[in-house]
Every structure is written in C-alpha cells, then in structure tokens.
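Hi there,

I know you've been waiting on this one. I reran it after we fixed the sequence typo, so this is the corrected version. Both the input and the resulting structure follow.
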Amino acid sequence: MAPGYDMEKIKYATDGPTFEKAVGLYENGKITQFETIMDGFSAIVLGTKSYHVFVSARHYDHGSCECYLGQNDTLCKHMVAVAIRAVTGGRLLTDEDKKLVNQPICNTHLGNLSKEELSTVKKMITVGLRYIKPYNGPSRIWFSYQNSLQEGCNRLSAIVSELPVSKQTAGLLVEMLLRLDKKLSVGGVDDSDGTVGRFIEEVVGVLKEYVKLDPACARVFHMLKNRETCFGWEEPLINFNNGQK
C-alpha cells in the first residue's frame, strides 16, 4: 500500500524539532516490526520504552501512539518516524530529505531564471499559496488550520531560499507578497497567530538583501507605490534605495 503523502509533505507539515527527532529514530534503527495493515502502517518504535504506533495511510498525522503525546492526540516523533518509514521503504535518507527550511533566506548567487525555470517556480509558489486558505471551520479544526498556514509558509520559504538574486526574482517575490497580502486583507485568512505576517516580514528582509547584492532589484519596488497593505510591510521597500530609477 502506497501512502497518500511523501517525504516533502512530512517535512513541511511537521514542526522542526519533532521532524528532527523522528529522523533520528528512523536513522538509528528504532522502527521495528513495521508492517502494512488494513488502512495504514504499524510498528514498534524503541524509545524510553517500546511504543506501539499506528499511522494512517491517507494522513500521516492521523493515528495513535502509546507515548504521552500520542495519548493526548498530539502528533509525536514516533508517529512521524513510522510515516517516514512508510514513505521511504527503509532506504537511507538523503541530505535533501533531511534539509529543513522554516524561514526564507537570501541565496547570494546572482542570476536569472530561464523561461522554463520561471514557469516552474511560479507553479510551485501557487501550490504553496494554496495552503494559506480561508478559515471557515469550527473551533475544533483551529490547530489543523494553523498547521496548514505553517506548511504553506515553509514550502514558500524553501522556494525563496533557492532563488538566485536578480531584478527578475525580486519582482517574483514582490508579486508573491501582494498575493499573500490579498489573502490576508480580503481572502478570509485568519492569521491571528502571525504565521503569515512573520513570513511576509522575513521575505521583505530577503528583498533588502537582494538590493545590497544587486541595486537594480530596487527598481521593481515601484509596483508597491500607492498601495496600502494590511500592516505596512511595503514601506521599507519603497523607502529602500528610493533613488533607483
């Protein structure tokens, strides 16, 4: 039975400390007696003691574990480790599998994307933005909703961190920020815990680094003039190297 998720899903949707601990369990051979059963996967995970763990084949964060967190309906490292085992089939993890990006950073490499690369990145951004969606549900789904916002920001962070620095990619990031701003202002996104707002501010910081590396990047900030964003994130960009033509 193939799981309905992959390594990318697990990595972006799990908080960093839990994911890293789960990777440690997996790489240290703590997942034993793994088997496919009915609608999911079961295993004995060795830790402080042996834990019986079950993970759904459809949603890696649905299942059960005998540990303290699992008994309180909280996703634990044991469940994540079993999900990793289900996805990988027991193979060794690559550096890319284990690489976590939970905030955007500036790639100091200068350059432009090819036409094909630009199209691919735009599609990836659109996919990431889909996780940042309106909140329409009852209070009981609040935490899963917040997890979706965080997953979207993590996915977008990974994209931003791989982009070369240029006027072209600076424009791409500004367009992404405007799409996020629209989601916050009129799109029904509930960002009361500040997940999306923090991400926007972090991308603004990346764009400031862009201008230091390539002053021509500041020219794209003209598209922000006379715009009123949801919390004024555009102001430092408009004021940054305002003399650029």
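Quick highlight: The beta strands are 31-37, 40-46, 50-56, 63-65.

Best,
R. S.
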